Amino acid sequence: MSAQLTPRPAPQPSVTAIILAGGLSSRMGEDKALIEIDGLPLLLRVGQVAQQLADQVYVVTAWAERYQHLCAEAGMQLIPEPLTDHLPQGAVCGFLQGMAQMQLAQPLEQRPPEQRPPDWLLLLACDLPNLQVEVLRAWRLLLAETPADVMALLPQSEGWWEPLCGFYRRECQASLQAFATAGGRSFQTWLAQQSVQALPNCDPAMLLNCNTPADLAKIKLG
Question: Which domain covers residue 187, as residue numbers?
Answer without folding.
Answer: 15-221
